[in-house]
Every structure is written in structure tokens, then in C-alpha cells.
Amino acid sequence: MTRAISTVHCDADAASSSLTGSALKSVRSVVAAPENEMKRWRRIFEANAKVVIDGEKYLDPDSFVNAIAPKSDSTKIGRAQFAILFRVADSSKRGLVSWDDFTVFETLLKRPDADYWIAFQYFDVDSSGTITFDEFKNVFLANVGPSAIPFDFDCDWVKLYLGRKNGTHVLGYNEFTQLMKGLQGERLRQAFKYLDKDQDGFIRPEEFKQIILEIAGHKLSDAVIERLPTLCTLTPSGRISYSEVVAFQNVIREMDMVERILREATAKSKDGRIDQSDFLNHSAAISRYALFTPMEASIIFHFAGRGSREKRLALLDFAQLLDPQWRAPHDVLEANEVRPKTSLLQGVLKSAYGFVQGGIAGALGATIVYPIDMGKMQNQRSTVVGQMLYKNSIDCAQKIFRNEGLMGFYRGLGPQLIGVAPEKAIKLTVNDLVRGRAMDPETGRIKLGWELIAGGMAGGCQVIFTNPLEIVKIRLQIQGEAAKLEGAVKHGAAHIVRQLGVLGLYKGASACLLRDIPFSAIYFTAYSHLKKDVFHEGYNGKQLSFLETLGAAGIAGMPAAYLTTPADVVKTRLQVEARQGQTHYKGLTDAFVKINKEEGFKALFKGGPARVLRSSPQFGFTLLAYEYLQKYPWQDNKPEVKTALTTPKRDEMSQIRARNALKILLDVHGDFGRRAANFSHPLVKQAPPTASPSKSA
């Protein structure tokens, strides 16, 4: 055999022989996993073990928690509560975990039933493999505390598991798992009976909250906990019945299934929303038997809808019920705010950056569509002989190109770009500001009325820049054609500003307000609903693509532009200097009346199609640029529903099972483990260490 296969050492080059090298590679791949696992455990142990005794490292309770607690968790289990597991890992009961103890504990966590196994070992104080009545009672009482709702250990339920006579029947592992599964239900029954002093089948809302906090507080978000007393509003009595308490507990117990039904039902819904009937129908469709009763469905929608049961809800509305760590969007923003010494400077820079965003976005949109701006088309007077310069928008464009060349399409662009930065900055900033103030702090939604108000206020605020900008732009556009026909001298923007004066720059401001307020109200509201209701932004975490964002912004500009054309026509007539023989207008009302009387109602919509062709792409590109510029460097996270079902599993399976073991123990009491530092493990005396431990350098 030595002649056929040469000797190969483990540390030798595997390429020395192709046959033996491939064989050795296969062997190494087979044995690599256990070796890597031990190395990983050793690395974790060495990184956290700080106590050194006789040259050996040990984990104390704090370092043990750092070693085994999940780094990311979607539950409300505190890291300090993982100290419960220390008592299981500390097999010698000396207050320290050695490398051997840690290896045994990590191996234990690999069991598929590690969660129940660890709970069993915690109650099995004397490590006999069984749990007596005294062990169960003492461990239970040591962890719930004296202020907890009393539990009657002499009840029939306990006797069914442990026998009628104390100590007659001991629990094996399998019996213990079933006892723990039913323990929370028995605690709920006893707690309700204890608090129902007059035995009429009802308890007060604050008493219901006390029960839930003790047995399931770690499974609920703070928002739901604060609303627990509102369960009494489901019935006219103003109190809470036992059936409602049990129904609420069933919802909590089946929360994973609740989430799956909600996600699937909202995904199938056309509008991404469901009502109580949709929930029950989908629940019945995916299960063999009914999973939830109508009362349980009512409770789900009561807390998701915050008391309003007559509306369809989106998945985002259920977030506070599904995610124990859920917080209102505004609270999250406040909690994430960092206020160092430079916070004021950062705030100024962020505001300035917002203005720059609006300026860049507005300038880009204005430049792209400026040739389409047919201000001259709206100003031509059909009642003046020789003033019908253009038959339509196409004829207007042809004559501009023939008389003024390509640059004629961009006449007045300079003032437009100078004014568009503050105009768009104010418009976008005011809209975002008002929407943010009017937004529901819990759901992040805004009512339709407030959407219109936010857009209208944005449009009204921008007039301070829009009106001077528009009047200079229009006069620059008009004088180009007039100079060609009449031989007049062209003047620049500075001459027009000096000629008009400060007050003259705001000529036609009333018409400008009449145009910009409804335009912005219609535009921003339509844009928001197109993104949400047509393109389904945020629907199951969806983010709009480049074309979808452009499409939503462009389509929103169409009705906004056309419906406000009459105001734009009047504004243009008021701002243009009337030549000899043209009608003079005294004001907004006078202009409306005279245009309608002399030229007909259709004249009020002159240039309407051109406004649509201009405003639609202009605001499309403006909002597109604004949306993408907003992502950097201060990107606001979109609200999502993140739970244990959707959070990426970055933790080891052993860490997940360690957390699940705690969940089983927390069913005994919500504060199980928080008092761990104040008492030693019941029935067991801690042995002092063999030598004084010292912290390693």
C-alpha cells in the first residue's frame, strides 16, 4: 500500500499527489464543520471571558450574556434577562462558567427542543431529571415577586400534573413541556378570578392591563400596552369580560399566524387594505378549521385601527400590534436625533441643503421644458386687428424659431433660473413641513384635507418669488416678437425691474395666488396618491423605480395645470404691458369679465394644452430630481413592518433558541429574570471559587 499511495502528512502540500490530494481534500471538507464550530465557540469564549483563576478563563454573568445574547432582536427581551440562562450553563453552581461548561451549553442549544430543555433544567434545581412540586413552586415564586397576582398552587390544574398529594407525582421532561404550554392560560384564569372581586364576570380596564403586563407584556409594543384599557369600548358596559381576556390572549399566542394572514390578505387586496371580513375569509381559506373567532378579529382590528372599526386597514396599521419594538415614526425620529455640540450647525446645513435640492431640481425641470412655455400664446388678443399672431401652439413655435431662432425659445431663462431656486425651495419645503406637522404620528398618514391645505400653503408662499419672476419672464418673451415686428429696442431683465419698481413686480399677484394655490393643492395631493394608490409605493416594501416616479410626478401635473389655466391667462394679461389698441384691465375680476365677454369662455383656456405639456414634464423632472436628491446624505427611512418573520436571521441558531427558551420562561411572568441579580437560584447554595478571581488585563 505504501508503494501505491505515498505517505502524506496533514501539514504537507496536498498537491504532492493528485489522488491522495483529492482524497485528503474530501476528508478535510467532511471534518471541517465541527472544527470550525469549536473554533467559533472558542473565539466567542476568549473574546468575552474576563475572569482568570489559576490561569484559566471564566465567564461571569455579564460576560456570559454578551457571549450568548442575540446581537439583533425584534422582541422586547432585555439583555439582562439572558442572565437566566447563566444558571443553566453554570453546572457546578460556583458563579462562573468555564470553557467546558460553555461548550456543553452551546451543544445543548443545538437541540431542536433546546428552548423547553433549558426551561426544564432551570426548574430542575437538584439536577435529578425530574421536577417535584416544591421545585416547581419555589422557582416560580422566586421569579414572579411578591407584587405579582397570586397563583394558587393548590388548584385542580396543578394537581392534574403533580398529583393530589404534594410530592406524589414528579414531572418528567415531556410532562413539563405540556405543563409550561398550558401554564399561561391557567395563570390568566386565576388572575381574572382573583381580580373579579364581586364574581360578576367582569374586571376593570386597569385590571385587564395588569394581567396582560404580567403574562405577555414582553410580546406587545408600548403603544398597544398604553391602549390595553380601551378594550372595554368593545361593549357598552365599559368593563372587560373573561371571554374578551381569553380572546386577547389567543391573539397574542397566535401572533405569527395573525401576521401571515395579514401579509397574505393585504398582498392579495387590490388597494393593499383589508377589513375584518377579509381577515376572517382569508383565515378560513388557508386553514382546515377556523383559526380566529369574530371576537378575536374584532380585537385585532380594534388595536390596529386605534378604536375605529369601520375602515379598511393597510399592513402598516397593524405594525404596532405585530412588532413588540414598534414606536411611532415621530418618536423614532426624536430618539435617533443626535444632538452633539455641532447640532445647530448640522441643522442649518440640512436646511440649506434642502433649499439647494429644490433649486437644483427646479432649475433642471425649468430648463428641460422652457421651450414649451408659450406665454405669448396666452397674451395674443383676438379682438385687435393684426394681433392674431399665432393660430395655435405649433404655429407659435414655428414663428418663434423663424423670427428669433433657437435662442428665442430660451429668452427669459436667466431670470427664471435665478428665481426658481428659492421658489421651488419654499414650495417643496413648506409642503413637506405642513404635511409633517399634520401627519398622524403613529401611522405616518395624512388626511386628504390636510394634503390639500399643505399643497395650497406651499403654493401661496411661493408667490413672493413667483410673481416677480413671472412678470419679468413674460415681458422678456413678449418683447422679442414685438421687436421683430415693430422694430422696438430689446431691453434686459434689469431694465424691466427698474421700470416696474417693487410694487410693479407684484402686479397680478392676486391672479398668481389664484393660480398657484389650487395648482399646488391639486398637484401635491395627486402626486402623493398616484405614488401610493396607483404605483403602490411602500406596498410590501416596494420602492418606486425611476420611470414610476417620473410618471407619477408627470401625470399629477396634468389636471393641476389645465384646471388652473384661466387664472394663468388672467395673470398673464395683467402682467403684460398693454399696447395701443389693446384692452386694459383694472384688476382680477375685471380681467375675467372682459376676457369672457370679448373673446368667449374658451379664451380663458388659451394655452391650456401647452401648459399641460410644459407643467407635466417640468414638475415630473423637478420632483424626480428632488426625490433622488433627498436620499443623500439625509435619507429618511420609509416606514416598514419589521417583525421576527421578516428580519434577516443574522444570529446563530443557538442564539435564537436561547431567546426562545427565555420566551417560555417569560410566560411565567413578564419580569422573569429581571430580578436575577437580587437573589440566588432557589434551593442551591453558591460554592465560593477556589481562588480569588481577578480581571485579566
UniProtKB/TrEMBL annotation:
<comment type="function">
    <text>Calcium-dependent mitochondrial aspartate and glutamate carrier. Transport of glutamate in mitochondria is required for mitochondrial transamination reactions and ornithine synthesis. Plays also a role in malate-aspartate NADH shuttle, which is critical for growth on acetate and fatty acids.</text>
</comment>
<protein>
    <recommendedName>
        <fullName>Mitochondrial aspartate-glutamate transporter AGC1</fullName>
    </recommendedName>
</protein>
<dbReference type="InterPro" id="IPR011992">
    <property type="entry name" value="EF-hand-dom_pair"/>
</dbReference>
<keyword id="KW-0812">Transmembrane</keyword>
<keyword id="KW-0496">Mitochondrion</keyword>
<feature type="repeat" description="Solcar">
    <location>
        <begin position="349"/>
        <end position="437"/>
    </location>
</feature>
<dbReference type="GO" id="GO:0005313">
    <property type="term" value="F:L-glutamate transmembrane transporter activity"/>
</dbReference>
<dbReference type="InterPro" id="IPR051028">
    <property type="entry name" value="Mito_Solute_Carrier"/>
</dbReference>
<dbReference type="GO" id="GO:0015183">
    <property type="term" value="F:L-aspartate transmembrane transporter activity"/>
</dbReference>
<dbReference type="InterPro" id="IPR002048">
    <property type="entry name" value="EF_hand_dom"/>
</dbReference>
<dbReference type="InterPro" id="IPR018108">
    <property type="entry name" value="MCP_transmembrane"/>
</dbReference>
<keyword id="KW-0472">Membrane</keyword>
<feature type="repeat" description="Solcar">
    <location>
        <begin position="544"/>
        <end position="632"/>
    </location>
</feature>
<comment type="similarity">
    <text>Belongs to the mitochondrial carrier (TC 2.A.29) family.</text>
</comment>
<keyword id="KW-0999">Mitochondrion inner membrane</keyword>
<dbReference type="GO" id="GO:0005509">
    <property type="term" value="F:calcium ion binding"/>
</dbReference>
<dbReference type="InterPro" id="IPR023395">
    <property type="entry name" value="MCP_dom_sf"/>
</dbReference>
<keyword id="KW-1133">Transmembrane helix</keyword>
<feature type="domain" description="EF-hand">
    <location>
        <begin position="183"/>
        <end position="218"/>
    </location>
</feature>
<dbReference type="Pfam" id="PF00153">
    <property type="entry name" value="Mito_carr"/>
</dbReference>
<feature type="domain" description="EF-hand">
    <location>
        <begin position="111"/>
        <end position="146"/>
    </location>
</feature>
<keyword id="KW-0813">Transport</keyword>
<keyword id="KW-0106">Calcium</keyword>
<dbReference type="GO" id="GO:0043490">
    <property type="term" value="P:malate-aspartate shuttle"/>
</dbReference>
<dbReference type="GO" id="GO:0005743">
    <property type="term" value="C:mitochondrial inner membrane"/>
</dbReference>
<feature type="repeat" description="Solcar">
    <location>
        <begin position="446"/>
        <end position="533"/>
    </location>
</feature>
<dbReference type="InterPro" id="IPR002067">
    <property type="entry name" value="MCP"/>
</dbReference>
<comment type="subunit">
    <text>Homodimer (via N-terminus).</text>
</comment>
<keyword id="KW-0677">Repeat</keyword>
<dbReference type="Pfam" id="PF13499">
    <property type="entry name" value="EF-hand_7"/>
</dbReference>
<dbReference type="Pfam" id="PF13202">
    <property type="entry name" value="EF-hand_5"/>
</dbReference>
<dbReference type="InterPro" id="IPR018247">
    <property type="entry name" value="EF_Hand_1_Ca_BS"/>
</dbReference>
